[in-house]
């Protein structure tokens, strides 16, 4: 059964009936590029079949490693940046109690999974070291290239703590490395020290890697069911193969956002009505931004959390400059609903809501917002999900991944590279004094002095 329902009914005043049909030929061509590898970046399409063609032996090894971590660690520190942490963190937030970090170990039942190496903040690392204190912990270091600066620095620090606490031999048994099968500094180190290693397949880029060991090990260690996650994604893999727009809602989403983009709606807000889906938007932003923002074009991916941000960004969305489109991921049925209590005095005037639930109010807020923003000139699309569980999440991940592949080709770019992220890295290496980058550093310092 489909787990995602794409609703474009609020677009009527923005997109004429014929416009979607006019996209069909282009969607067919984009589908051909994606499925048959005739488009740019063809070597990075292996995520397309990850849900059905993953390495089953490795999958079992992931589950075993997760069990070991659960049995010997209070905390799992997952070190990675970009695609090497966003998917795991969004999944863990989506699948667990909102306050699971604050729960006691007994209530949580599973290790706390904490992410590091996704910034260069010393405060963050200091505070995490303090949180770990004397607790038992393990480290999952994740890097496809095996050379990214932020996670490399964090890894040195947590490796040192592991060695101090457990000694070298036991420390090596508490380090799990997820990286390339053959190249990169992390692979070299993992081989030299005998870390248990998991492979990021060649044809899977960072932002498409949540359904490989990158996401699966931390998600499994957190106690979530990765079989169900993969089963949901595999269902979506089957459901989204038709290049006929009328039969493929992921492709409809890709087509509509491109129709809107070409009319000047250049920024897309991914929205939720559930605080535990904030990280989902962060994951989606990398997926969309790195896939599409290149060659001086592309939809700018942003996000908003409702109803919270209706009291901050809401004014701008309703009446500010008109370049926004919105995509809501709407949970149709929360796992737990809470009734609004009755009060005799009704001093707060909420009597009219007595006996109704929080989710009733949340859904009415969503309906009200769609109507208001539509009237205000903001096109709104909705991706409905039935509930929050592993199966639905796997399905939803695949929905957005396949939509982004098609969307990129519709806009005439390579959706699978990210050449632009190197520019700051080169400068940073120059300024940090990395061997080989001396000239860059010299030039930058001279420019900075001139500007001061
Ligand atoms: O996994 P890594 O090689 O460490 O890369 C981590 C991230 O950083 C890079 O700069 C890329 O732009 C991202 O696509 C990638 O997910």
TrEMBL record:
Gene3D superfamilies: Glucose-6-phosphate isomerase like protein, domain 1. It is found in: Cytoplasm. Keywords: Cytoplasm, Gluconeogenesis, Glycolysis, Isomerase. GO terms for molecular function: glucose-6-phosphate isomerase activity. Its EC number is 5.3.1.9. It catalyses: alpha-D-glucose 6-phosphate = beta-D-fructose 6-phosphate. SUPFAM superfamilies: SIS domain (SSF53697). It comes from the Bacteria. InterPro entries: G6P_Isomerase, Phosphoglucose_isomerase_CS, SIS_dom_sf, SIS_PGI_1, SIS_PGI_2. The active site is at 290 (proton donor), 425. The keyword Transferase does not apply. Pathway: Carbohydrate biosynthesis; gluconeogenesis; Carbohydrate degradation; glycolysis; D-glyceraldehyde 3-phosphate and glycerone phosphate from D-glucose: step 2/4. Belongs to the GPI family. Catalyzes the reversible isomerization of glucose-6-phosphate to fructose-6-phosphate. This is Glucose-6-phosphate isomerase. The lineage of its organism: Bacteria, Bacillati, Bacillota, Bacilli, Lactobacillales. The gene is pgi.
């Amino acid at each position: 059964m489909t787990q995602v329902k794409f609703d474009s009914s609020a677009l009527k005043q923005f997109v004429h009936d014929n416009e979607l049909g006019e996209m069909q030929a282009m969607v067919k061509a984009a589908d051909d590029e994606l499925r048959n590898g005739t488009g740019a970046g063809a070597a990075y399409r292996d995520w397309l079949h990850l849900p059905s063609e993953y390495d089953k032996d490795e999958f079992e090894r992931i589950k075993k490693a997760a069990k070991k971590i659960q049995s010997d660690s209070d905390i799992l520190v997952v070190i990675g940046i970009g695609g090497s942490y966003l998917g795991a963190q969004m999944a863990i937030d989506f699948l667990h109690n909102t306050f699971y970090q604050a729960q006691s170990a007994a209530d949580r039942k599973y290790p706390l999974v904490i992410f590091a190496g996704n910034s260069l903040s010393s405060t963050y690392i200091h505070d995490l070291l303090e949180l770990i204190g004397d607790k038992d912990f393990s480290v999952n270091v994740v890097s496809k290239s095996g050379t990214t600066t932020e996670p490399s620095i964090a890894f040195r620090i947590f490796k040192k703590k592991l060695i101090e606490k457990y000694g070298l031999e036991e420390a090596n048994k508490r380090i799990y490395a997820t990286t390339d099968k053959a190249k990169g500094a992390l692979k070299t180190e993992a081989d030299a020290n005998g870390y248990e290693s998991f492979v990021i397949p060649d044809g899977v880029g960072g932002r498409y890697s949540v359904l490989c060991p990158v996401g699966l090990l931390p998600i499994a260690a957190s106690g979530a069911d990765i079989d169900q996650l993969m089963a949901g994604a595999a269902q979506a893999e089957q459901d989204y193969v038709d290049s006929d727009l009328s039969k493929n809602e992921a492709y409809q989403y890709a087509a509509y956002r491109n129709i809107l983009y070409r009319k000047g709606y250049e920024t897309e807000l991914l929205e939720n009505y559930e605080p535990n889906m904030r990280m989902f938007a962060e994951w989606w932003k990398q997926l969309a931004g790195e896939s599409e923002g290149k060659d001086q074009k592309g939809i700018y991916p942003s996000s908003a959390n409702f109803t919270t941000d209706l009291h901050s960004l809401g004014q701008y969305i309703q009446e500010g400059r008109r370049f926004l489109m919105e995509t809501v991921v709407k949970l149709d049925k929360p796992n737990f609903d809470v009734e609004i209590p009755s009060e005799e005095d009704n001093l707060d005037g909420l009597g009219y809501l007595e006996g109704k639930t929080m989710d009733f109010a949340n859904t009415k807020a969503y309906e009200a917002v769609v109507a208001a923003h539509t009237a205000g000139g903001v096109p709104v699309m909705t991706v409905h999900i039935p509930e929050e569980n592993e199966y639905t999440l796997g399905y939803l991940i695949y929905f957005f991944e396949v939509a982004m592949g098609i969307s990129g080709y519709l806009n005439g770019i390579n959706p699978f590279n990210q050449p632009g992220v190197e520019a700051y890295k080169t400068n940073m290496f120059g300024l940090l004094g990395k061997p080989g980058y001396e000239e860059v550093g010299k030039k930058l310092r001279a420019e900075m002095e001139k500007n001061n």
